[in-house]
């Protein structure tokens, strides 16, 4: 005889599993009349399964055949089955000595689609929804779908799309599957219509608004999107305001309130910032208090705060940071430095007490690396200057982080210090890196008055197979220069960090503006170069190469080339030794704002048919005038001389004119000219460039797009010519610098301010690549 079910619980799909469990318990407690007497299980059956494996159900059950079944175990079984998230309804029926588990499976998501999506990438959103439990092949949960819908709306709010609407549509399919479609109506982005600053009297509203990254009317907002409201950007701007006042003596400055109002149509935003300036304070003195390890004089030398001048929060922060780093250099990783101001409001003065508490000295147990899914551990670890099982050294840790960052393989590099549980003198260092693509495939075409139409392409990989090795192929097909170059570089050829680079090349070139078309200079060759790091910032390079230059053709061949060929033959073999040194102290390679860059390179032809020495030296300096303005100079000197009674090889000449040397003059047109009009270059070159970078109106503090004004001076001289001041050429003009998706782009327009009548002028010029 079939026994009535002990209980039946049905759960609609809208109810979360956690709520279901509570309902099950309540149902059990509320229905004592249906309780069953405990009995020994003879069998367990499962009904209603379509896709789920029966083993999944049996694994969740808290009883087996042969166990004693009771109501408590039945309730536990329901809770466990609902917790799997696979079922929208579960019933347990008792049929004699047999338990029947009846399930109603949730629908499975067959497909996820987005309609009307423009602002976001579909693939990225699909991945983010997976974190909410919404992805193809997973059971569908209406509650999770609602959460995902709200998250999509929140993402649109971060882009100032306050009118965006998201509608979720669930379409049933055969075999208990559903398609989930998110239909998006994005609408227009809300823009900042007005920014008001109230309560200010010392500085004008226009001055303060000029400090903000957000703005209410920049004509280049279509590029910078600075009129798109963002809470994080507003918070950063408020901090900028605070820093501006605190660095000018207004110690008690405060932002009292901030109101953000949006129009009824959700298209216009008004921001009102209420500030309290307070009075200006002058620093009367600085004293040290606390424990300084008996090195008070050493710490006193690190103080940046200057008595007698207005209080500057920036100087206080720099001082406390310097103190913390110095304690870190001594192994005190958790040193606490507190700047305590003693304010005299009547006199408008403040005294600063720097209280130090070094805490305890610690050493590093482990240095862990995470996030390098592609780059090998050893490639990262060989850059470490802080070692495991040695005293904590803040200077070495910072240097380790900077060296890993300079590899160029990662978008972000962070180091965190964590205490080791159960000890008071050990820490672990955790370096987390975020990898970025290190390969580059470039195809391009160009046109210029000098080279006409040209094609170029390259395949480069800075981190081949995660080994840190560089491999590249470059091809150029311009009219005057055609190159094929294969390059490979191993930055750790030896365990000590000595690098090794190979170059194999095949180059053809023609002197610019020459009349002939059937001649060219052909130079195949190869070289090997080693780099030895003498300090953390200085690297010395040395190497050797072999190359052969052949002067082919005859019609239109410049006279100087013809004479060199008649005297030394069509082919000239060279065996140059290379020696060089570099130091790069710029804060950025693409958009430098401060720092220096220095290099010198010497080629010495010691064998073959050519004997010469060729030297090139460069110096760059960047000075930050303000956050938005930068002044920079670039000086470059080149010098070459023939040895053993031979002239300097004409095909080793320097060239001048155009971007990188003296702008507004035709590319490569400065220096000696053949009687047929070909530009020959020379064995001596000098350039001096000055640039003032300033923001494009409407871009705020964006440094990827900047205007610049320039002045260039320089020229090129032949081996037998004297360098004279009256032979220098000079130019001045304006330009635009943009870090574009395909590389740094520079456009310039200028005019000569010192030239000769036969000079070739090219006012408008552009390049993609180097800084100067």
What does the model show?
The chain has 772 residues and is α+β, with helices and mostly antiparallel strands. It has six domains: 17-105, Ubiquitin-like (UB roll) (Roll), CATH 3.10.20.310; 115-185, Roll (Ubiquitin-like (UB roll)), CATH 3.10.20.310; 191-276, Ubiquitin-like (UB roll) (Roll), CATH 3.10.20.310; 290-357, Roll (Ubiquitin-like (UB roll)), CATH 3.10.20; 363-435, Ubiquitin-like (UB roll); 439-768, membrane protein fhac: a member of the omp85/tpsb transporter family (Porin, Beta Barrel), CATH 2.40.160.50. Helices cover 17% and strands 41% of the residues. The chain has 13 helices and 33 strands. Strands 18-19-20-21-22-23-24-25-26-27-28-29-30-31-32-33 form a 16-stranded antiparallel sheet. The chain has a three-stranded mixed sheet with strand order 2-5-4, covered by helices on one side. A hairpin with a 3-residue loop joins strand 26 (595-608) and strand 27. The protein is globular. The relative contact order is 0.05. Residues 1-33 and 444-451 have low confidence and may be disordered.
